[in-house]
Amino acid sequence: MTDDNRYREFWGITQKINPAQILRWRYVIALTLIASLLIISQLIIQSTISNDIDDSRVVNIAGRQRMLSQKIAKTALQIKESRLWNERAALSSSLGESAVLWKKSHDGLLFGDPELNLKGSNSGEILSLFNAIAPYYRSILIDSETLAIRGADPSAKRAEIDALADSILSNESMFLEGMDKITFQYDAESRGRVNFIRILEIILFCVTILALAIEARFIFFPAERSINSHFLELKRIMIFLEQRSIEDSMTGLLNKNAGLFVLEKEMFKARRHLHPLTICFLDLDGLKHINDNFGHDTGDELIVAFANSIARTIRGGDVAFRFGGDEFILVMGCGEEGALDAVSRLRKRTRDAPLVSKKDLTLSFSSGIAVFPHAVDISAAEFISLADNSMYREKKSR
Fold first, then answer.
1. DSSP output for 109-133
2. Cβ distance 148 to 99 under 8 Å?
3. Cα–Cα distance measured from residue 261 to residue 329, given in angstroms and rounded to the nearest whole number
4. 380-396 and 256-273 helices, crossing angle to 10°
5. Which of 43, 111, 221, 358 is buried most deeply by CB count within 10 Å?
6. Rounded to whole angstroms, how far apart are CA atoms 144 and 92?
7. Model confidence at 379, in pLDDT bands (50, 70, 90)?
8. Which segment of 72-86, 144-158, 226-240 scores lowest on mean pLDDT?
């Protein structure tokens, strides 16, 4: 990929919508959906718990109605059989209290009662069952209230008391039968609601799983691919920019800043470990003449050709960088003899390397070598100056 294409790619990436923004909105939608499903599930669970409590209370009160009706019938029978007025008066008082509680519970089941925590919300089937036992209920209630009064009256006739007790006993069995049906219906409806809620919770669970699968398929996975693609694109651009920061754009060798950094590092290592270090300052001959007579494009071609020759000549551990214009520096981990050999090989390579566009032009250069003085504390600039001076001495000696 050419530099122009890389710059166009970089510019294209900078104009793209930030995938984090897309991901944020997708996450907001996904989390809102999941939160909504969780809230609905919690509401259903809380409603189920509340309904279970209410249903249990209703079933208990309905069951208590059966027991109270039996207690009323039993007390009425005891009053009928009692021959002592004091005993009959006590039983009559108990009968009156049972009748009051019985009526309160019955009305609570039908119409609701805050004290008993009854809502009085009944289905049509239950109301129909209540209507069926209404005559027996009213008869028992009236007879119980009357018997509670007359049973405590010492002047009440035995025949009147017996008739009231017999009436209660005769209606009690029909009321019990109807109350059994009502209790069973309450329980059946309660179980039906529980089953409905259970099915609804299963449906919500499945919908939640489906929502998660859809979010993974259409939100999370695409977002992950988008972010990964964006990251790889940025990584390529970062590599390109890093190369541009250390690479000379014309020759492909290290640029001056990168080369000086490498040189300073090699000087530190050479001083610390007493390793041999030599630099060679290279300067192309006649570049101004070529630029003036053949144009700067030909001069640039000469510089690139020379840089290519340097890159093919230096050893793997050596470094070459463009110092500026037509000047290059070789950093070599060897002594003066090794540096001279490298320069000789470079001259041989460049001697027969004519420019493609100008067949009659060949490469030539001047060189200066400086061996790192381990005993002297010099800077990179001073070290380069030694090699530069050596190169100028060679150039003047021609």
1. HHH-BTTTTB-----HHHHHHHHHH
2. yes
3. 13
4. 110
5. 358
6. 9
7. very high
8. 226-240
Whether 110 and 128 have beta carbons less than 8 Å apart is answered as no
The size of the chain, in residues, is 398
- The token pair at 239 is 């590599």
3-state secondary structure of 101: helix
- Which backbone phi and psi does 321 adopt, to 5 degrees? -145, 155
pLDDT at 52 over 60: no
First vs last C-alpha separation in the chain: 43
Q: Which domains does the chain have, with CATH numbers?
A: 13-219 (1.20.120), 256-396 (3.30.70.270)
Element (H, E) at 3: helix 3-15
Q: Tell me the pLDDT tens digit for each residue of 7-26.
A: 455 445 444 555 566 666 76
3-state helix, strand, coil in the chain (%, to 5): 75, 10, 20
- Write the CB contacts of 65 (distance below 8 Å, at least 6 apart in sequence): 102, 105, 106, 109, 179
Q: Residues 100, 70: contact at Cβ < 8 Å?
A: no
CA distance 173 to 183: 15
Task: Give me the amino acid identity at 147.
Answer: L
Burial 332-349 (b: 16+ CB within 10 A, else e): bbbeeeebeebbeebeeb
Q: For residue 284, which phi and psi values (nearest 5 degrees)?
A: -65, 145
Instruction: Provide the pLDDT for residue 392.
Output: 93
Q: How many helices (H) and strands (E) does the chain have?
A: 11, 4
**What residue has token string 């250069």?**
365
| Residue among 308, 312, 305, 314 nearest 354 (CA) | 305
Query: What separation in angstroms does the CA of 232 have from each of 20, 228, 229?
Result: 15, 6, 5
What is the C-alpha to C-alpha distance for residues 243 and 255, in angstroms, rounded to an integer? 10
User: CA neighbours within 13 Å on the CB side: how many for 367?
Assistant: 20
Largest CA distance in the chain: 159
